[in-house]
Amino acid sequence: xxxxxxxxxxxxxxxxARAAIAAGHxxxxxxxxxxxxxxxxxxxxxxxHAKAATVDSAARQGDFxxxxxxxxxxxxxxxxxxxxxxxxxxxxxxxxxxGRIPALDTNVSTTSELLQKHLPxxxxxxxxxxxxxxxxxxxxxxxxxxxxxxxxxxxxxPGAKQVVTEFLDTLGYDAVDLGPLSESWRIERDTPxxxxxxxxxxxxxxxxxTERVQQT
Length: 216
Ligand SMILES: NC(=O)c1ccc[n+]([C@@H]2O[C@H](COP(=O)([O-])OP(=O)(O)OC[C@H]3O[C@@H](n4cnc5c(N)ncnc54)[C@H](OP(=O)(O)O)[C@@H]3O)[C@@H](O)[C@H]2O)c1
Hints:
- By secondary structure, this protein is of the alpha/beta class.
- The protein has a single domain (3-208), classed as NAD(P)-binding Rossmann-like Domain (Rossmann fold, 3-Layer(aba) Sandwich).
- The chain is 30% helix and 16% strand.
- The chain has 8 helices and 8 strands, in the order E-H-E-H-E-H-E-E-H-H-H-E-E-H-E-H.
- Strands 3-2-1-4-5-6-7-8 form an 8-stranded mixed β-sheet, sandwiched between helices.
- The longest helix is centred in the last third of the chain and has 14 residues, at 158-171.
- It is globular, with a radius of gyration of 16 Å.
- The model has no long low-confidence stretch (mean pLDDT 97).
- It binds NADP nicotinamide-adenine-dinucleotide phosphate (NAP).
- The site of NADP nicotinamide-adenine-dinucleotide phosphate has 26 residues, from helix 1.
């Protein structure tokens, strides 16, 4: 079992924490305001398996680290503590929240390529971006179950994708590999795979039929 570093203690961060602890992992979780503001969350998650930390400390303690903060904040992430680390990227682009980002508006980049650019020495893997946060602790099923939900991953590093695939498996999900981060537009906002529960075969079919549209 692993220690999961989690940066961002909102919808995604807390629900991945709940699912991870239920699966037997430990979590170290951070937000922007400091560990003292996370006392109630740690009490709920259980001090035996959950710790609050600063962003730097959560980044260093995690065997791998989930980034679960709004896209507009990714440039504030520290680079050095995340070097040589598998970084899971749950980000999505919502211009009304994040402001307009020309590289995304023109489809020059995907959201995860922006994070990889900011963290050039980390191994970024797109994951958890297309499942509603509250579903994460609820939708897991054992391996081999015919209704097992699949989640898409993407990234440059096969070893990093293997780490994420194994983590998803412990949480009750199959992984469907999209290829490099440049292909992760197939699972970004407003695509057929974004949101609904799908098995691996259903998700692969949805991904294959996805067309890239202009962001609005
Ligand atoms: N909500 C969903 O169902 C869902 C599903 C899939 C993907 N996503 C994507 O996941 C990302 C996070 O969404 P969310 O709904 O979890 O957001 P959220 O509920 O608003 O939580 C954001 C968290 O990020 C923290 N944060 C912000 N800036 C930070 C920084 N510079 N350093 C450390 N922590 C920082 C906030 O801490 P403070 O409160 O201390 O500021 C807060 O704990 C977004 O890109 C979203 O689109 C969301």
